[in-house]
Design a protein that fits this description.
The complex is a heterodimer of chains A (204) and B (127). By secondary structure, chain A is an alpha+beta fold. Helix content of chain A is 47%, strand content 29%. Chain A is built from five helices and seven strands. In chain A, strands 1, 2, 3, 4, 5, 6 and 7 form a seven-stranded antiparallel beta sheet that branches. In chain A, helix 1 crosses helix 3, helix 1 crosses helix 5 and helix 2 packs across helix 3. Helix content of chain B is 45%, strand content 20%. In chain B, helix 2 packs parallel to helix 3. Chain B is globular. Classes of the chains: A alpha+beta (204), B alpha/beta (127). At the A-B interface, helix 1, strand 1, helix 3 and helix 5 of A face helix 1 of B.
């Protein structure tokens, strides 16, 4: 996986930083407070090389929001948060002092909405900057163990590449770390790189 | 509005090389005679302006080290003549208010012809 130069990664980092800014603005309007989202790192690796360290996964259970995107390239995007952190985010979004049991009732809906906001903000930033159109499916939310998530990522033979973005989310001073993972086929990764090259060609 | 064709110096502060390239390309398309320098973080920008005072500055917010708004505040307290535009993807009200309090404006990323036009307009009208 050597097709991506530092400049490619820089361009993608800038795109996702803009996406994170858009998502933070939308979320701040929901929670009524400042929201910070940053993307401190991006890496593209072969899915067989992915492990719990890549995704900073521990032994707990994780909430995963999945959404499919199609356009010049196709990708499955998965937003991952530790479930206990996901419930805290849901609490911030619901804006009340609910018990964990009560929050769990809203977990599915609120996490789908959170995923929808972050994923679409990132993908719309990418579409605007690289000048193409992406369509998205409805988000789906599942809770799974780290092993189940890794197994699913590693055994997806149609999409042998993964782009992993670490995400730092701060709502009302509460810090949460998560991951945004894009599963890409070889041709989709080539297409993405080609669009980044076209973009860079215009400014270099 | 009459265009000031005199040679000006612009400092671009952004940790992303791509973002610096974008700003440079769009600015030079409009003002090819301008002299452009770059800094990759707030600390470097603060050091640079003491040695080579620019007329204008574009400043990112989220960078390694100090935040761009804090760097802008330090720079403007010493060199209030530098017309500064804060470029950021984070356009929440707190950042907009902070930018205004510094006598700057916040322009939303991505960097486009439109955002550069806003920037050049601010530089030209805030003399």
């Amino acid at each position: 996986m050597n097709n991506l130069s530092d400049l490619h990664i820089d361009a993608l980092a800038e795109v996702f930083s803009i996406g994170a800014g858009r998502a933070a603005l939308s979320l701040s309007e929901i929670v009524g407070d400042e929201v910070r989202i940053s993307v401190p790192s991006i890496q593209v690796i072969n899915s067989k090389d992915i492990n719990s360290a890549t995704l900073l996964l521990n032994d707990g259970r994780f909430g995963a929001v999945s959404q499919y995107f199609s356009g010049p390239f196709n990708a499955e995007a998965v937003l991952l948060f530790a479930e206990d952190q996901a419930l805290k985010i849901v609490g911030d979004m619901m804006g009340s002092q609910m018990s964990i049991e009560e929050l769990a009732e809203f977990e599915h809906e609120a996490m789908c909405e959170l995923g929808n906001i972050i994923l679409n903000a990132c993908l719309s930033a990418m579409a605007d900057i690289f000048e193409f159109t992406l369509e998205s499916s409805l988000p789906d939310y599942t809770v799974a163990s780290a092993d189940e998530i890794l197994h699913r990522l590693k055994t997806n033979s149609n999409q042998p590449y993964v782009m992993v973005l670490h995400i730092d989310l701060t709502i009302e001073k509460r810090h949460t770390a998560g991951n945004l993972v894009f599963l890409l086929s070889s041709s989709s990764l080539d297409s993405l790189i080609s669009h980044v090259d076209q973009f860079l060609g215009k400014i270099s | 509005m009459p265009v000031d064709n005199s040679i000006k110096k612009l400092l671009i502060v952004d940790d992303s090389k791509v973002s610096r390239m974008l700003i440079r390309t769009h600015i030079l398309a409009q003002r090819p005679e301008w002299i452009i320098s770059e800094a990759v973080c707030g600390e470097e920008a603060i050091a640079l302006v003491d040695n080579d005072l620019p007329d204008y500055c574009t400043m990112d917010i989220n960078m390694p080290g100090i935040q761009g708004t804090d760097a802008a505040e330090q720079i403007l307290s010493k060199h209030p003549s530098i017309k500064t535009v804060i470029f950021s993807a984070n356009i929440q009200e707190t950042h907009q208010t902070r930018a205004r309090s510094l006598g700057t404006i916040l322009v939303a990323k991505p960097v486009t012809e439109k955002s550069i036009a806003l920037t050049l307009d601010f530089f030209a009208t805030s003399q």
